[in-house]
Design goal:
Two copies of one chain form a homodimer. Chain A is of the alpha/beta class. Chain A has helices at residues 39-45, 63-66, 68-78, 93-103, 160-166, 173-177, 192-195, 240-244, 249-259, 277-286, and strands spanning 2-7, 21-26, 29-33, 53-57, 85-90, 112-117, 123-127, 131-137, 145-151, 157-158, 182-183, 189-190, 196-197, 204-208, 226-230, 263-267, 290-292, 298-300. In chain A, the strands form four sheets. Chain A has a seven-stranded mixed sheet with strand order 6-5-4-3-2-1-18. In chain A, strands 7-8-9-14-15-16-17 form a seven-stranded mixed sheet, covered by helices on one side.
Amino acid sequence: MKLTILGSSSALPTSARNPSAHVLNVHERLFLIDCGEGTQMQMRRFRIRFGKINHIFISHIHGDHVFGLYGLISTFSLMGRQIPLHIYAPANYEKMFISHLNDFDIYPEFDIVFQPLEGKKIQTVLEDKHLTVKAFPLRHRIPSFGFLFREKEELRKIVREMIVKHNIPVSKIPGIKKGEDFVKDDGTVIRNEDLTIPPPKPRTYAYCSDTSYFSRLPSYLKEVDVLYHEATFGDDHAGLAPVTGHSTASEAARVAVAAGVKTLLIGHFSSRYKDAGVLLEQARKIFPETYIAEEGVSYNI
Amino acid sequence: MKLTILGSSSALPTSARNPSAHVLNVHERLFLIDCGEGTQMQMRRFRIRFGKINHIFISHIHGDHVFGLYGLISTFSLMGRQIPLHIYAPANYEKMFISHLNDFDIYPEFDIVFQPLEGKKIQTVLEDKHLTVKAFPLRHRIPSFGFLFREKEELRKIVREMIVKHNIPVSKIPGIKKGEDFVKDDGTVIRNEDLTIPPPKPRTYAYCSDTSYFSRLPSYLKEVDVLYHEATFGDDHAGLAPVTGHSTASEAARVAVAAGVKTLLIGHFSSRYKDAGVLLEQARKIFPETYIAEEGVSYNI
């Protein structure tokens, strides 16, 4: 898994930070998470391949998370895209979205498969052989969802020398990869752990923006390697966070501690903080493994 | 007058060119012409002052000319703007536009004064003491308008030494600035041209995007100093121009010749032209004073 930050500002972009957009690369398939204004230009800038994006996840229908979607769809269309595009977004968006495309004279030739997000529970919204994606409710001024991307456990890897040594027939290999022992013709049992090595641990990435702090949030984030959590405010404006449906850097860090994640990335900083270092410092006091989501930087998970 | 190019791509932005947006500075008042995706980020990049924009002109409702408007209005709102914003756009846009703002949860506190563009004739859409702005119909796939910004003729400038020499009373000065002669108490007539110097010639800027070539277009562009004209295609794709509602660089140049403008800027190049120099060369064969509209560059008119 590789995460690339395309935009990390809050609603008011700055000269250094574009509105929200993340790209997650899982086995060379790209998942776009939020799509603020200018996302397609950031994709060109950071050499993200347009043709590899088949799934777009929209956390909520505020402009700084969705204004870039129309231009991107127009571009897909002009590039001659044929394969379907899956969009996961709050349920009330589908009707608006179709109407907006018509208003802007955009009639894509490819199918857009809209998957509505709703409800108060965490739920699986995408599952294939490599990956499960879950959506969970956040607490914002309008319906808003976080996303959890978890690789599936791969099969065990068979040690090539052992195939030769024990003369293992091809027909037995799939079973061995799944954990079976190998029984020779003479009845000798070769234990699976002597034939295979375990697969790499599945990686998990979670995206939480925009949300105010609520006590159930960490329960959605178990065994997460990298958590991105919004940190709109510092402790100096802690009172504004619940009122506006946002979090402070300290609250983001408390979520990271409670969930037991490995690494915390913070972003979506209010433009009033010219130097995000202040927010980083406040978060690190609570959760030392905190980093600032920097535009154009890729993080291996 | 000073023109700054914020975006000069066609519908498919490239890594070097953003979608359409121009800023015209007339006596330190800024007029935004088209507002493609990313315009507000380009404004920050090129230090255009948000608070000085009170009038936005939208040529037509295709995304590459309008997707940036929503983010810009959201930003105006977050910056606490109070003064009214005037938007000039094709008539069918007003209803859509209001509905889009609501869909995106944007409820500005400042007034948005929408001025519908319609009809088949050139017409004055804004007039104040310094400037007249006219809109004229273009020929595109949907209703589309060009804009003509013309400074008003200033009063003649009185030569300070002459006031002293002829002992001209203050009450006579406004009349002299308008061209009157000065009659002394003894009946001597001092001719106006001996008292004043003429004002600078009024400057004119015209914006034409998107349009295919039509013979009436040059008649809208008389006495234009700088004409921006789209040049989506080169001669190699001349057949595509009328079909898609666009122009070739050669057609843009022919409009410049027929209208007798001083300088032609071309932009809105199809992304198929990696080097716009080819288009420049084709235009210059017909109209030598052609230049490429370069992002972030300002042109004094």
